Each structure stands twice: as C-alpha cells, then as structure tokens.
Amino acid sequence: NDDQFKKVIAHAKEYGYVFQSSEIYDGLSAVYDYAQNGVELKKNICDYWWKAMVQMHDNIVGLDAAIFMHPTTWKASGHIDAFNDPLIDNKDSKKRYRADVLVEDYCGKLEAKIEKEIKKAKKRFGDAFNKEEFVSTNGRVLGYQEKIDTILKRLGKSLENEDLADVKALIEELDIADPVSGSKNWTDVKQFNLMFGTKLGASADSAMDLYLRPETAQGIFVNFLNVQKTGRMKIPFGIAQIGKAFRNEIVARQFIFRQREFEQMEMQFFVKPGTQKEWYESWKDTRMKWHLSLGLGKDNYRFHDHEKLAHYADAAADIEFRFPFGFKELEGIHSRTDFDLSQHEKFSGKKMQYFDHEENKSYVPYVIETSIGLDRMFLAVFSNALMEEELDNNTTRTVLKLPAVLAPTKAAVLPLVKKDGLPEIAKQIVDDLKWDFNVSYDEKDAVGRRYRRQDANGTPFCITVDHDTLEDNTVTIRHRDTMEQKRVNIEELRDIIKKEVDV
Ligand code: ATP
C-alpha cells in the first residue's frame, strides 16, 4: 500500500517525528533523525520495553556496553567471516540491491494479492466470512502461498549454501526488475560485508582497525561473567540492553525500517543446557504478549518460524508485523546454543563458564535471545496509528491513534480564548500536570483547529478552559479517539489521564 506508506512518511515529517538526516545537504541515505515528538515516542517505547523486561523480571538486569569493542570480538562472533549479504548491481540504473531483499519483495507482492483476495471475500460474505476456512479452501490463495513457500525455501537454501549463482538464477526466473528503472540487466551476485570499519589511534602504523557494532548482543556476551558475578545472578537469568547498531545495508529503502544506523532492544537469557527448548517457547510467548498488550491488533502480527537456521542456532522465529508494505520482521527470537560464549572462550582464552551450585558443576550456558529493532517498533506503532476518519458532518480528520502509554504528549491544555484570565488558568493546569506527564499548552487558532492539530499529533487528551471554569473550576476533557467531551473538575484531571496512560 504505497499511498498509505507515503502518507506515513509525510506525516512523520510534518508533525515533528522523523526527519531525514542532514536534510539541508540533501540528506544521507538511510539515516534519519528523530525530532521533538519522535524522540518522545522512541523513549516511551524504550521505557515500555525496559519495564516489561527488566523491572518486571527479578532475574533480568540491564547493561549499557560501549559501541566500540575489541576487534577480536567480531572474529569470535563470526561477523568478520560471515556477516555478508548477497548484492547485485543493475547495469542500467547503476543501482545496487540486496539480492535476497529483491526476492523477498517479490514474495511480498504475492502476499499482497492474498490479502486482496481476503478483503474481497470478506466484503462479499460479510459476517459469514471465516478467514481460516477461506484461506484453506481457496485455490488461488493456496497457489500464491505455495509459490511464496517454494521461492523462500529455495532462497534460504541457496543463501545457506552460499550458492550465489542460484540466487541470480532465481531473480531471472522470477523476472524481477530494478524497482527504480524497471531494467532486468543485472551483474552477478556478490557477497558484501555489512560492518562499518573505522580506526582507533592517530599514527598510521599503530592504528587499530575497529568496527561499529552491527548488533548489541556481543556487548552482553563479553560481559556475561562480570554481570553474573557482581550481580550474584543465578541461572536462568537475563541481561538486557538498548543501544545503537550499525550496518552498511546495501538496499536501504522503506524509511526507518532498514537504516544504516539504528537501535536495538536485546535481551540474552542464559539457561542450563538442555532447557533451551522450553525457554525458547516461553520467550516466544512472552514477547508476543508484550506486543499484543499495546493493542495494535492481533491480526497484524504473525510468527515466522525459520526453516533455515544459522549454524549456531537450534531454533529461531521472527515476529512479523503488517507494515504498510506487507508483513516483515519486527523482532527475532533465537535459540543460540552455547555458540557465542564458547567462541569468546576460545578467542579470549578466558573461561566463560557458570558454576551451578545445585548441579555442583560448571558449564557454558545456552542462550535464548530476543532482539527487536526500536526503529521498526516505532514504524509499526506509528504507521498503525495513522488514519483518516470520516466524520458525521461529511468531513474527515487525520488522527494518530497512538497507544496512550506511548504518546509523546499526554494532554494539551487549551484556553478557549486568549483573554479573560483563561490562559492563566490553562498555564496553571500545565504547571500542575507536568510533574506527572508531558503536557503542552496551545492557544493559537480556533479551538476546533487545535483539536485537529492535537489529533494529528497523537495527543490522547485535550483539556479546554472556558468561561464556566471561572465559575466552577471545571474544564472540558476531550478524548482523541472517541472525540467525546466531558465536564470534569480540574482536581480530577490527573487521575483521569493517569488511568489511561499508565501501564
Ligand atoms: P533483516 O532480515 O530485516 O535484515 P535481520 O534478520 O538481519 O533483519 P537481526 O540481525 O535479527 O535482523 O536483528 C534484530 C532486529 O534488529 C530485527 O528484527 C530488526 O527489528 C532490527 N534491525 C536489523 N537490521 C536493521 C536495520 N538495518 N534497520 C533497522 N532495524 C534493523
């Protein structure tokens, strides 16, 4: 749904959520800045995650490791040898693409066809429509699904075997064209390492090659024993971290979905070998519940269990979200075995073992990882919230129905007019509420226009001070989603808002 996606990007800019980085210099490709509202939304997503993962689990603690790490880290983790993506150049447009993304986009188009069939049938059958039944019996839908499965299976296999010729053959067979120029004139597929390199130290001969971390996880692994010992942690326990990661993505379209500098919220959960299957299932469940708790709609999520597993993993699944451009990965849950810790043990020569008092033995723990992209979560929340609503009086309104707990500003306080002492009362309400929430003051334009502005901004409540306030200390509180207005006492405001925005 291209139009919807364009609206999302335009709205993010117009309302101070996301700007292109270095815009005055025509921007830097796939790098973005979060503006006054975006930074608040992002922070609220972080808090929501941190609270659920760290505060609510007495066996999970936090960490903030440096972005720079000793270069051997990336040898041990396998990133130097194997953090590659297949790339292909288009000879005509001179543009460079990730070959696997081109194939996946093709499958996304087939998925969109399935969605269209479902929508059509829903309309036709009304209440009698049963999605599961329709999908399992409709020949055309089954055909598309079968094709998607076959293509992805083959792509997975050729990537796993590093059979780049087969990736190229697949692109040719599917008749995929350059999304920009429409040309099908490709070069061969090559491998491309995604890590950004830099140097530490001034003199050329002593400078050390460093990398900007491509994931936050390794900072957790190398600190595993430090945290375990100083925190006296007992297995099973977890370490959580939010931080920047960098990848030199070859194709960086889709706005903040795929960036070169982005943020991850990761948690590594250390368990006794042999118990990883249970913990993997349990974390899949816990993470899905976290997503559903935000109320973005159950139908917008699905699991994608990996058939193709990285050599170190014994199970892996993605939580996919229905973005404006189709279902795509939002979070990964991986059962990583003891691969990372064993590798660091091997490369550092330091023991990475845990002494289990109950078992009276030492072992290298197994790890379950949950890894979610903060920016992708931002896009999921933001794109899902943006809608145009038809109103009774034949007008439309643009409203950003962000979950109240995540909204950048919880309430806007509006004096009906700019005189008669109303601004002073409104400002006093702001001063009282700002100890608990982000609130804003707005006195410009007619009150109807201010409501619309706050709707588009995602503010869950508008509080209007009018002449009656002078008499009885009451104000109008208007709810963004229902547009319902209620007369309440100023003293009640804090509790009313709290009820809605507290987790
Ligand atoms: P993809 O297949 O989309 O490239 P990935 O499988 O490489 O993603 P992981 O390495 O599992 O991703 O990273 C964990 C999470 O980090 C992803 O689920 C995603 O939300 C986020 N992420 C990864 N790469 C990017 C990126 N370039 N921009 C924004 N977020 C990203």
UniProtKB/TrEMBL annotation:
Quaternary context: Homodimer.
Organism: Mangrovimonas cancribranchiae
Functional summary from the UniProt entry: Catalyzes the attachment of glycine to tRNA(Gly).
Alphabetized UniProt keyword annotations: Aminoacyl-tRNA synthetase, ATP-binding, Cytoplasm, Ligase, Nucleotide-binding, Protein biosynthesis
Name of the gene: glyQS
Main location per the UniProt record: cytoplasm
UniProt keyword annotation of Transmembrane helix present: no
Subcellular locations according to the entry: Cytoplasm
Name of the featured protein: Glycine--tRNA ligase
Residues that bind ATP: 247-249, 257-262, 329-330, 373-376
MF annotations from Gene Ontology: ATP binding; bis(5'-nucleosyl)-tetraphosphatase (asymmetrical) activity; glycine-tRNA ligase activity
GO biological process: diadenosine tetraphosphate biosynthetic process; glycyl-tRNA aminoacylation
Family of the protein in this entry: Belongs to the class-II aminoacyl-tRNA synthetase family.
Sequence ranges assigned to domain Aminoacyl-transfer RNA synthetases class-II family profile in this UniProt record: 140-415
Residue positions binding substrate: R98, E215, F262, E263, Q264, M265, E266, E369, T370, S371, I372, G373
GO cellular component, one term: extracellular exosome
Chemical reaction(s) catalysed: tRNA(Gly) + glycine + ATP = glycyl-tRNA(Gly) + AMP + diphosphate
EC number annotated for this UniProt entry: 6.1.1.14
NCBIfam families from the UniProt entry: glyS_dimeric, PRK04173.1
